[in-house]
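Still learning folds. Look over my entry:

…
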Amino acid sequence: MTYSKNDERLGLLLWFRLSRLYSQSIRESNQHLKKWNLTAAQFDVLVQVGSHARITQQQLAEKLFVTKGNITQLLSRMEQLELIQREKEWKTKYISLTESGEKLFGEVVPKQETFQASQFDGLTKEEKKQLLELLKKAMPNKND
């Protein structure tokens, strides 16, 4: 497919806007999550593990957008914080929340969901639905 200069410029402007939105959202999320001494990556692990009760490290890695080396460091840190526990059954490593991890999950997840939702207060419900559909259309089959 060939693109005109206007198409290329529009595509570039969309990319810049999405990049800025993402960067700003991550910065603000990290700031919000500091109340619980969590990073956005740690929060993501907390949500994924807490939503599955018990998950393999491989399944978790597939759900997160981090490398295997990064996930190992991330999980080690969360284990030190006594938020998760790892168990090995033969060749499979399983991860689950500890009691303190479950308590933190129950406290932080609803508040972070509300915080994230507030990031889109400038849009109507219909605009939010439309944006979601447009983003899905722009990136089909990319881990919805």
